[in-house]
Amino acid sequence: MMIKKVEPSLTERIKDHIDAITTAVIQAIKPDRITIEYPRERRRYPEVFRGFIVFDKNRCISCFRCAQICPANAIKMEFYDKYYPSIDYTKCIFCHFCVDSCPTGALKTSKVHDVAFKSLEEMHLHTTQITKVPDIVREDKVTVEYEIKGGEWKLVRKKELDRLEVEVPPPVVKPKKASCKEPESCLGCRLCVAICPQEAIKFDREKSMIKIDIDKCVGCGLCVRQCPMQILELKVVE
């Protein structure tokens, strides 16, 4: 069985061409598409967008919590004047558990998601490289947002640039210091002495008990989590 080739008439061809040209003109004057022309346009992301992680060194208390909670093992602590986090973006899954768990707000998010690296080695960012949002060459001149009205999608364009840095108010933190609630139960294992990054804990050999220097203690809680007898605690300083 042979299928005959359908040949449109001249009238139909002219009509199809007119329809195509009409559609093109309408889209050029008043487009109804919802596609974002990235990078010339950039979508406005929410303030809680999980993007590039920024680190505030002055707020860090070296509690190691970010490194311990990271499910991808992407955060390692590096020593400068004290221990600070570094991030390996070959492993990071942008869950932001580190940001959410940081007790002092030293880690915060940004709206940056399009960072390019030349090699895998460069994706391991040291502490000094995450203290600010990376320099970005921006091509966008329009910020777009999706709106739903009457059950229909609409793309709203504004001639403004969305700020990629997110200013998050730091959490209200009550100062805490380490304290031993049951000195008589201390085993003298000195794990707290070994793990304290501030060297605020010393072991008194004569009394066979630990001494905590309150002035050096920053309330990181490492000793509390390390103590096998669970006799150390963080107490709020009034």
Please provide a written account of the structure.
With 238 residues, the protein is α+β, with helices and mostly antiparallel strands. The protein folds into two domains: 41-158, 2-Layer Sandwich (Alpha-Beta Plaits); 176-236, 2-Layer Sandwich (Alpha-Beta Plaits), CATH 3.30.70. The protein contains five helices and twelve strands. The chain has helices at residues 10-29, 65-69, 97-101, 191-195, 222-226, and strands spanning 41-43, 54-55, 75-79, 83-88, 107-108, 124-125, 142-149, 152-158, 176-180, 201-204, 209-212, 232-236. The strands form five sheets. A three-stranded mixed β-sheet has the order 1-7-8, with no helix packed on it. A three-stranded antiparallel β-sheet has the order 3-4-6. Strands 2-5 form a two-stranded antiparallel ribbon. Strand 10 (201-204) and strand 11 form a beta hairpin. The N and C termini lie far apart (94 Å).
